[in-house]
Amino acid sequence: MTTFYLIRHGEPDWDINEQYKLKGHGRDLVPLTHLGTQQVHVTSKDKRLKHAQLILSSPYTRALQTAAILSKELRLEITIEFDLREWQPDLTFSYDTVEQLMELGSDYDLHNGIYPAGQKRFWESKSMMKARMDGVINRYLNYEYVIIAGHGMAFRTQVDVGDIPHASIIEYKMWE
């Protein structure tokens, strides 16, 4: 059995997106706020994490910064896994406003992440996101304890929870 500690990144500085008018994946380059780094430092003290053998991270800045803080505090190596990235709201990579992001997110929520019959959407479906998350998780079932620094929507494909607070830990157990 493998215990995965799913740790959502700390609070990100979303204001940078508007300041620099970032588009598509550029919007995922924002770092953590000062509060976000403090949140992760607090999380790194959680006694459950002392058993972890490695840290897996999404390639997005907010998750990488979270993983870097955990790595420093826990003295663990980080492996970046591209498929741990957050939900992709626009597979055309052209959205550039918070309003468009909210529209795409609302449509995803309205349809529970499932494309309506006979219709295609711009956003990544829940099943697409789950498949890539499962692929990563299955490669690490030979470990006992693994930290994953990542994202709320991606984690919700694995566990049935509502909103996940920044820098919080969800224990997820898998059997080979």
DSSP helix count? Answer: 6
Query: Which architecture would the CATH scheme give at its second level?
Result: 3-Layer(aba) Sandwich
CATH topology: Rossmann fold
CATH class: Alpha Beta
SS strand fraction: 5-15%
Structure description:
The protein has a single domain, classed as Rossmann fold (3-Layer(aba) Sandwich), CATH 3.40.50.1240. The longest helix has 14 residues, at 61-74. Helix 3 (61-74) links the parallel strand 2 (54-57) and strand 3 (78-80). By secondary structure, it is α/β, with parallel strands linked by helices. The chain is globular. Helix 2 (34-44) packs across helix 3. It is 35% helix and 15% strand. The chain starts with a strand and ends with a strand. It has six helices and five strands; from the N terminus they run E-H-H-E-H-E-H-H-E-H-E. It has helices spanning 15-20, 34-44, 61-74, 98-110, 126-139, 152-155; strands at 2-8, 54-57, 78-80, 145-150, 169-174. A five-stranded mixed beta sheet has the order 3-2-4-1-5.
